[in-house]
Amino acid sequence: MIAPVQQDGILRKGKIVFIQIDASQPQPLFEQVVMQMKFAIAAGTVRVNEMIPSVRDLARQLAVNPNTIVRAYRLLQEEEILVPRRGVGLVVAEHSQAECQRQRKAFFQHRFDSFLKEAAGSGLSVEELSEIIRRSSIATLTPNPK
User: Fold this and answer.
1) Which fold has domain 1-146?
2) Can you tell me the distance from the alpha carbon of 88 to that of 99, in angstroms, rounded to the nearest whole number?
3) 96-125 tens-digit pLDDT
4) Buried b (16+ CB within 10 A) or exposed e, 114-143
5) What is the pLDDT of residues 31-85, one digit of tens each?
6) Using one digit for the tens of pLDDT, what is the confidence trace for 10-31?
7) Based on the number of CB atoms within 10 Å of its own CB, is 94 exposed (0-12), middle (13-18) or buried (19 or more)?
8) 3-state SS of 74-91?
């Protein structure tokens, strides 16, 4: 069973963040929960056949209305990412990790394609764009010393 702990609006499993929502974003909270749950499943943070938090627990930990979580879980069930298990609750379905990985890749491919179209439309050269990507990659992938 997942033993999440909330700190600063972030739901954590041990030390690994698996759900992070932001009420200031234009994306509805239930969609953020769906996306973050899929990302967690894709990454293996939440594993196949693992029970997820109850509606009430997750709503309390994320400080959102339980209906938000109900709506998110309903969508995940409709996509067969989560399945009910008698006497246990909702668990991650057998095929879910591969499907969530596929969806995660498609999501970021779409965002990257949109970024490239916007950059090209602004008149950036291939060299300028390559430099931006290289610098961003280095900054993002380099661990911060503490």
Assistant:
1) Arc Repressor Mutant, subunit A (1.10.10)
2) 23
3) 999 999 999 999 999 999 988 998 899 999
4) eeeeebeeeeeeeeeeeeeeeeeeeeeeee
5) 999 999 999 999 998 999 999 999 999 999 899 999 999 999 999 999 999 999 9
6) 444 543 446 888 999 999 999 9
7) exposed
8) HHHHHCCCEEEECCCEEE
